């Protein structure tokens, strides 16, 4: 049961610096007291992550209108939340990396001088929780006490955030016990930024989705602190996820020799019963959740899910690279999730799910674009307005989400939460490219693999074959998530690779499901058929280990491509010309792309590792002089 402490009685208001000082001392109770003195809630509740606690918070949110219960026969244990229409996504423009030296944030992050940011935050957090309850949520990223795991404590004035954190992380008194015993924790403070009393003490009416037009998602890499203000939305408010498990953890990894990555994690089992583990980085909205839950079309193969968004990678005792999914649930995009694209997810969402900003059916079930081919005749859209097919706006917000426990996933791998993690066999980098990038290519070396990760990009337009469209760069799919200089991240990858046993080091690949023909049609069917590409990838792992002696790959300027016949295409409606286009390397178009890569590298100045500059030079040489 939650412990209800007395409202803080501190006569003088607290300061943000006092909270930081307590956190630095590692004293969780002093820290919570200091945050309460700053934010002035009416009560403090220490959460234990129990089912009793969850039920009480859900009941409270149903009363206040934050959660709408769905029909228990159609969608048992499930709820719909409708956010403020202005609080529907991560706000990168208000996301800050506050390293003492601006150069350590790098050119791709918003930087603020820590002292200046502390002053601003001190202003907005003062009295921010007046009239609200402050919840203290002790959580673990990764199994509690595991060798790859990390602890955090989030303070929040949002019950929606408490319940969501209970799904997405491991919340419990066992975590608090460790923290009280002196284990290091990441202090994370969150407020929706809408107090229920003004400075004079007069009451302000609550709303179902409180938030503020002022937003801060601030990270202090040196003190490992997170301060988030003004939003209740996932990536801004569930601070274990992007803020901790990527931005802060990437800095921890830099300092401690490991990697925090925006990667899914899967186990493949071959028809021979051999098991492989693959991590894959894709920018947001490239189908990571679909790939993580893929149902293979190739007979005899299985794909099991370990994670769909974040992986922590750490060199193991024998020179292998181990990986865990630090999360305990999925916070996925609903639109586009349907029987055809992700049947496992559809099954997973049948119960015990919190939906945010999807549409509501008259029967009390949910719907979103892509769930079924034909929309229901009548819906209530994500803003609560009547909707009929043909309405101008989509029924569900394009970034509407589901929040569900990993255990609910029908394809979850046995031992997915093993504290020791899994040994990685392959790492995959992907983008959404209409041109140039082949369906799959293997890096010639670890350094080449880091080059592939550093040059991940997507094209907005369905550019004609051979003509590179406008490239949006998203190195390592970490552009919004790296807590330090991106080029330093590349150097760190080179260092981690060098620390691994060469024979056990994962092989690195680049994939592109999105290449198009001149008419803008996709060349590759994707979804379950992507299992064919995964099968070739792990066949290459077998060949590298001497478990197969047939020729699997041929050299090309951009990496090793499947040898004729090595990629299983039987049963696909794919003619030879289409197959050739999927792997075509057009020297002129690639030369143009190397120019763009040079410009991109130049934005990082002298922090780009020499090995990557060398790789670019080699690519140019291999392409030959155009014309
Ligand atoms: C998020 O916005 O919280 C999130 C998970 O982001 P994305 O899906 O873009 O990775
Ligand atoms: Na988002
Ligand atoms: Mn993501």
UniProtKB/TrEMBL annotation:
It holds the Pfam family PEPCK_N. The keyword Transmembrane does not apply. Binds 1 Mn(2+) ion per subunit. It catalyses: oxaloacetate + GTP = phosphoenolpyruvate + GDP + CO2. The keyword GTP-binding applies. Its EC number is 4.1.1.32. It is an enzyme of class 4 (lyase). It comes from the Bacteria. Keywords: Cytoplasm, Decarboxylase, Gluconeogenesis, GTP-binding, Lyase, Manganese, Metal-binding, Nucleotide-binding. This is Phosphoenolpyruvate carboxykinase [GTP]. It comes from Cellulomonas edaphi. The gene is pckG.
